[in-house]
Amino acid sequence: MTVDEMIARKKEYGYSNKKLAELSGVPLGTVQKIMSKSTRTPRYQSLAALEAVLKGNSYDTMAQHSVRETSSYGHNDGTSAYMKSEDHAGKTMVDYLALPDDVRVEMIDGVFYDMSAPTTTHQMVAGEIYAQLREFVRKNGGECKPFIAPTDVQLDCDDKTVVEPDVFVVCDKNKITREQIVGAPDLVIEVLSPGSWYHDMRRKLKKYKTAGVREYWIIMPEHKEVMVYRFWESDTPKDYTFENQVPVGIWQDACKINFKTVYEEIAFLYNV
């Protein structure tokens, strides 16, 4: 739900800012800023709480644990750079394969979501994580294969969902074709950019879980944080920082991604 949609729903329900603050638990001053669109980076937790009230239900456990009060990943329209329009709905693989080569979208349940170009930070973080996963596989063998975007993943094995995870691991070679992956990867890792927070932390989080992804990592370079979902254990993520070596659950923690090394690759971009 975008901020404009929240504003329209607020008018429909006849809520005042004060009433909306009471129902959502969001401070009145924050509600006023969001509803007047005077803040360019509304916090994810505030948006999720307001959306829950205006949709008439409480946001679920996964969303509740996906928030960061100090997040800088919010976008001024309350969604992300992954936008959809009316002519983006009702699509299939036929429409997806007919797109020009320079058009980047993901298709989820028949809806196209436009993708912005990744930042240099995003690409360097993803590349280092992929390199560490590949090195582990090379040393230890096994059936698992790591991949890095852009690689199409036909997530539900149907013609309505194709995503491009930043980094992922597939352990069933029957899912790997010359053109794409058909079926859910075992591990998916997404690196947040300012424009992708909603897409990765809400929309794709739920989609990955229901599709059968076993483990899902969300990397937040701006905060040097990592959220790890092991769906076979819990819907509540484990939190790590870039000071940690984060264990890979699908390999019984035998592989650990060294995030100090990851940060060393991008530290110069932060003038530290």
How many distinct helices? 9
Structural class: alpha+beta
The figure for the number of domains is 2
Low-pLDDT runs? 57-86
Shape: globular
Features:
272 residues; alpha+beta; tt1808, chain A; 2 domains; two-stranded antiparallel sheet; 34% helix
Write the layout of secondary structure elements.
Layout: H1 3-13, H2 17-24, H3 28-35, H4 44-55, H5 61-64, H6 93-97, E1 105-108, E2 111-114, H7 120-140, E3 145-148, E4 153-154, E5 167-170, E6 181-182, E7 187-191, H8 197-211, E8 215-220, E9 225-230, E10 238-241, E11 245-247, E12 256-258, H9 259-266
Parallel strand pairs: 4-6, 7-8
Antiparallel strand pairs: 1-2, 3-5, 5-7, 8-9, 9-10, 11-12
Structure report:
There is one protein chain. With 272 residues, the protein is α+β, with helices and mostly antiparallel strands. The protein is built from nine helices and twelve strands. It folds into two domains: 3-59, lambda repressor-like DNA-binding domains (434 Repressor (Amino-terminal Domain)), CATH 1.10.260.40; 120-270, tt1808, chain A (Alpha-Beta Complex), CATH 3.90.1570.10. It has helices at 3-13, 17-24, 28-35, 44-55, 61-64, 93-97, 120-140, 197-211, 259-266; strands at 105-108, 111-114, 145-148, 153-154, 167-170, 181-182, 187-191, 215-220, 225-230, 238-241, 245-247, 256-258. The protein has a six-stranded mixed sheet with strand order 3-5-7-8-9-10, sandwiched between helices. Strands 1-2 form a two-stranded antiparallel sheet. The protein has a two-stranded parallel ribbon with strand order 4-6. α7 packs antiparallel against α9 (259-266).
